[in-house]
Each structure stands twice: as structure tokens, then as C-alpha cells.
Amino acid sequence: EITREKGVLFHTDATQGVGKIPIDVEEMKIDLLSMSAHKMYGPKGMGALYVRRKKPRVRLSPIMFGGGHERGMRSGTLNVTGIVGFAKALELSMDEMSSEAERLTGLRQRLFERLTSELDYIFLNGHPTERLPNNLNLSFGYVEGESLMMGVSELAVSSGSACTSASLEPSYVLRALGVGDDLAHSSIRFGMGRFTTVEEVDYAAEQMISAVKRLREMSPLYEMVQEGVDLSTVKWSSH
Q1: Residue extents of the structural domains in the chain
Q2: Where's the Aminotransferase class V domain (predicted)?
Q3: By C-alpha distance, which of 137, 142, 152 is closest to 209?
């Protein structure tokens, strides 16, 4: 609504959402939408861009020139097999969206409840229900995210988006959600998918619980909090 009022085009990177949650470009007033095949188990290297054709019509300028493929927008021989694979992956994702979302939400909640039943100072990042069914982002107080990842080397988890995995800066997304730097640095993102099982979720929970407890045993800050010390009142000396 805001972009329409100001005459600004609205583009969204929906790579994580397409195939997992319903997306209606008309209802959401989306003018441009990016999506990627590999996020729905399609071939890697394939993507698509939705461009609104009316109300308003979006006109783009090409950045690649040559044979005039794709109505002059992107010249170059088309990857037909990749396109077909992308289309089939999207078709399957749409057909299974409702049942798969229900299954993944159950797995996500199972993991969350198992972790919070065994560990304290766990903080959920993002809305408790208005989120992707397969996504769980948690901050573990008094544990450094990178150390925690090293402690659960058998699990494929991340402390930030794959796009910024080389950066040690806390996630700008978590910062925008109001998460402080300390908790942002202690965040871990869990992603569940089509082939994730209940047994794998339980195993992941066991590994995380063990690693967090082990790291907190070495944390003087956690020990102080357990003893009832209010860390905000502590005057730290510089060296």
C-alpha cells in the first residue's frame, strides 16, 4: 500500500517462500518477485523473475544483449532442461504445500519444545506463528553462535544467512527485529525440509542440548547469572 501511494515499485526476494507458503502477487501488490529452483528441490542455477504487466506495467531495461531471447530481456540460449525441472519442482511444491507445511510446522514445534524443556535462556527470533513452517531461529544466551556450530559439527545449521556466511557481523535481519548484538551473535538457524524425519529432529535436539550445556559450563557470565548476579549492574574494568 505504501509503495503504491508513493509511486514506487515493490520487489520482493521470495526465494525462501515460494512453494512453502501461499503467495498472491495481486493481493500483496507485488510488482517484481524473485524465486529460485533449488529452494524447492529443483535444479541449481535456475531462477525466475515475475514482472507485473499491468496496473502498473513494469518496464525493465536488459543488462545482457545479443539474440533478443526472452522478449529481449535476457539474451542467451535458454537452459531448457533446467526450466522444465524448475517448473516440475514448483508444480510438486504447490501440490504438496498444505500437507508439507503442516508436517514441517509439527517438526519445528517439536524441536523448539524439546530444546526449551531442557535449556534456559533460549529466545525465539521472529513471530511465533507468522513464519515459514520449516524455519526456526533461536538465540542461546551465554553461548557464542560460531562456537556452538563447531560443537554440533554433525548438524547442518547456520548462524546467519548463506549469503553472508563469510561475515562475522551479527545478522542485520535480527538487528532489524530488535535483537541485540549479544543475542544476534548467539543465534542459530535450523531449516527442515521434505526429507527431514522425527528421528533426525530428536537427534538434533540432543546434540544441541549437549553442546549448549558443555559451553555454558565454561562461561563465567552464565555462572554469574545462575548465582543471581544482574549483569547490567556489573562495572567491567578495561585492560
Answers
A1: 2-78, 96-226
A2: 2-203
A3: 152
Q: Residue holding cell 549448549?
A: 212
239 confidence band (pLDDT: 50, 70, 90): low
**Domain 96-226: CATH superfamily, name plus number:** Aspartate Aminotransferase, domain 1 (3.90.1150.10)
d(CA 135, CA 54): 34
Out of 74-88, 108-122, 178-192, the most confident range is 108-122
Residues 6+ apart with CB under 8 A from 144: 185, 186, 215
In this structure, what C-alpha cell is assigned to residue 200? 533426525
Strands (E), 44-186: 47-51, 122-124, 135-140
Residue length, the chain?
A: 239
At residue 168 the predicted structure's pLDDT band, cuts being 50, 70 and 90, is: low
Known catalytic residue: 214? no
Quick one: pLDDT at residue 186? 85
- The model carries a pTM of 0.83
Q: What is the mean pLDDT of the chain?
A: 88
CA distance 49 to 70: 12
Say how far apart CA 65 and CA 75 lie, in whole Å. Answer: 5
**CATH number assigned to the domain covering 2-78:** 3.40.640.10
The whole-angstrom separation of Cα 156 and Cα 153 is 7
Cell of 75: 539474451
Give me the catalytic one of 2, 80, 163, 176. 163
